[in-house]
Amino acid sequence: MIDNFKRQIDYLRISVTDRCNFRCVYCMPPEGVKFTPHWEILSLEEISRVVDAASDIGITKVRITGGEPLVRKNILDLFQYISANPLIDDISLTTNGVLFADMAENLKKSGLNRVNFSLDSLNPDNFRDITRVGNFHDVWRGINKALELNLHPVKFNVVAVRGVNDQEFGDFARLTKELPLHIRFIELMPIGECNPWAEGNFVAAAEIMQRLQEEFGTLETEMKVTGSGPAKYYRLPGAKGTIGVITAMSNHFCNSCNRLRLTANGQLRPCLYGNQEFDLKTPLRSGASREELADLIAKAIRHKPSQHHMEEGWTDRRVMSQIGG
Where along the chain is [4Fe-4S] cluster 2 bound (predicted)? Predict the structure, then answer.
């Protein structure tokens, strides 16, 4: 479906839970956040009904997110439901990777096409400091399993934070020389827990690229890597993988945004940073038909704004894991 600004909206990001087994410093406080009661979270069957309705108006790509999606009970069933829809041609996953290795083969059998890992440090001690609880080696085992299963392209999402992981940019880049990994540096966004200190810890994509070029020389511009994301990609000479930057703040990409977000409690957000949400849970539980759900999703698309306004500050009381990454 085409929105009011001539953008083709074909991508739905689905948060299946607001629960997470990490406590990342830029996402939530050490004690965590109050989780949504289970009865308020959409069931897997309700999520699949939303996907079916969305596919009727042009959604062809689905990404499963959280919180940490792999903590959701019976999550494999959802992949099977979605993969049974012939109108959906791409099913992807964003995960912190801790549980991935042991689930990877069944995820692929259930319909998973590709995976993104959220990984902000290659140093086990720094990784633990950032996540507060995470074990780097569990994540690395999951990454190797994804490569073994050919779940390409295998991507890393690295939130760039000054004084936290900016000393590792070169280490991430060097990984792409030997492994077919696609490292994407994401500018820190003033959302939730990181809102008060985002400005002082912000690293612009231009600075990241300058640092990498000073260390490695001129990077080759790369064609877009498979997926629906906004990253601009580059390659070190002869490298097997790529380096990407996502300029969420310094040079927004709203004019090409093709996505909607479904929160775990059934609210459809046309824009991550906008406050407007469309309630799908109530009609789902009131017996709405597939056609009626499709009409509601189309309404949300018609209300998708021309761009975000992150520079005005974060007013939502929720953190990123409660909205959907």
Answer: 254, 257, 271
27 is in an annotated binding site: yes
**Where do we find the tokens 């990077």?**
219
Residue 24 is labelled as binding a ligand: yes
Kindly tell me if the per-residue pLDDT of 319 is higher than 60. Answer: no
Q: Looking at the domain assignment, is residue 15 inside a domain?
A: yes
One-letter amino acid of 69: P
Residue 294 belongs to some domain of the structure = yes
Please tell me whether 13 is known to bind a ligand: yes
Residue 239 counted as domain residue? no
Number of domains in the chain: 1
- Whole-angstrom Cα distance, residue 231 to residue 126? 25
- Chain segment 33-56, per-residue pLDDT in tens: 778 899 999 999 999 999 999 999
Characterise 238 by phi-psi region: left (phi > 0), alpha (psi -120 to 50), beta (else): left
Say if residue 261 carries a ligand binding annotation: yes
Fill in the amino acid letter for 313: G
**Calpha distance 220→102 (Å, rounded):** 36
Question: Does 1 show up as a binding residue in the annotation?
Answer: no
- CA atoms of 79 and 111, how far apart (whole Å): 6
**Residue 55 placed within a domain:** yes
194 carries a ligand binding annotation: no
- Determine the number of helices (DSSP H) and then strands (DSSP E) in the chain: 11, 12
**CATH no. for residue 71?**
3.20.20.70
* 63 among annotated binding-site residues: yes
- Closest among 135, 231, 238, 138 to 183, alpha carbons compared: 231
Residue 259 pairs in a beta bridge with: 11
pLDDT tens digit sequence for 151-190: 999 999 999 999 999 999 999 999 999 999 999 999 887 7
Q: Which H or E run contains 168?
A: none
244-293 pLDDT, tens digit per residue, is 998 877 767 788 899 999 999 999 999 887 778 999 999 999 999 999 99
94 annotated binding-site participant: yes
In this prediction, residues 136-161 reach a mean pLDDT of 96
